[in-house]
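Lecture 7 notes: from sequence to structure.
We start with the chain below.
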Amino acid sequence: MARYNAWQNQSVYSAAETLDDAARRLDRGAFFGSIHATLCHLLWADLIWMSRFAGTPRPAAPGIEASASMISGWNELKRERVQTDELILSWASEVKQDWLADELTWRSGAAGREVSKPCWQLVAHFFNHQTHHRGQVHAMLTAAGARLDDTDLFYMDA
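Predicted structure tokens for the same chain:
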């Protein structure tokens, strides 16, 4: 799933690159409004989960509301996305079965309390969350006239 995530992010960012900045920032009625804002939120969430999974630094944006405006510049957002995908790939290559079977406890800002869940479930959520928001961006990009690559897993290594 880490390889799929990086592959699909490359496709989404390449398609978004064909639009001008105003088109990427246009409020298209999605939960976070624009393509840019949704991509910022997705990066923020990946960084939050990696801080919990791997002990990496948390993003500077303090919560979900601020996540959509975490990075203002397109080139910086692209660079951070590539670096984060590399971090995720590296982390995923080292995950052990016993860690997946363990439980993780953290303070959830969204829930407003301490939460404990099995790591395998949180990893499934992590990748599902990426797919969910990439789907929103995919729809916005398609509506804007951008062309994206295939998303089916069996095309990944084709």
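Points to note: The chain has one domain: 17-149. The chain has seven helices and two strands.
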